Amino acid sequence: MSKNEDKEIRKVYNEESRPGDEEKLHSDTLNADKSKGRRLIINKETGKITNAETGEEVSDIQVVTEDGSLGSVSAGGRIILCGANAYEMKYYFNPLFKKIPESIQKELHIISVLFTQEAGGIFTIEFEDDGSITMETTRSEEDITYDEVSAGLLIGEVRRQRQDLFEALQMYYRAMILHEDMSHLLSEDDE
Q1: In b/e form, how buried is each residue of 121-155, taking b as 16+ CB within 10 angstroms?
Q2: Dihedral (CA of 62, 11, 7, 119) sign
Q3: 150 has which bridge partners?
């Protein structure tokens, strides 16, 4: 991919943010009136989350960790790594994972944006509780051009082509987030 194509993708999906935006977002969140939180209803059978006051379905929940990092959790309870939205033409990378090398962040950005350009809808890459990677694609109810079968096939293609990347991300999650002892992997390589 040329630098010009990469710049175009960044423009389309508004990746470039102004300095201080993230810090302002964190300070606004941390200094928010804690008594004015959202009340959510979780349906245990379907896993759907709805806002108790408005009745609207909630697709993800913003969380603030003890160190002040802001991130997202999907309605299914998985931690969102990144995603792109063809309807709003936006790309999202979860700041909880800002320590992932920049080259991998860029690759995830390209994967997400190209997926939504080809298939449409909303595409997310998420971590399961055990660190495995899940890719999800959804559509707006009004979108009659979205093809679920083609999107599913495209997910399979992305998974096959980027298998090494996803395996590395799984190891990162297990080591850095779950704090698993990964020394057994090093000893297997030595043999």
Answers
A1: bbbbbbbeeebebbbbbbbeeeeeebeeeebeebb
A2: positive
A3: none
Q: Report how far residue 39's alpha carbon sits from residue 49's, in angstroms, rounded to the nearest whole number.
A: 10
The per-residue pLDDT for range 103-144, each reduced to its tens digit, is: 999 999 999 999 999 999 999 999 988 889 999 999 988 888
User: Dmax of the chain from CA atoms?
Assistant: 59
Structure tokens belonging to residue 4 = 């010009």
pTM: 0.63
**Angstrom distance (rounded) from CA 116 to CA 86:** 5
Q: Which two tokens stand for residue 175?
A: 């080591």
- The beta strands (E) that lie in 16-65 are given as 40-42, 49-51, 57-58, 60-64
The answer to whether residues 90 and 14 touch, using CB atoms and an 8 Å cutoff, is yes
Tell me the torsion sign for CA atoms 20, 124, 140, 51.
negative
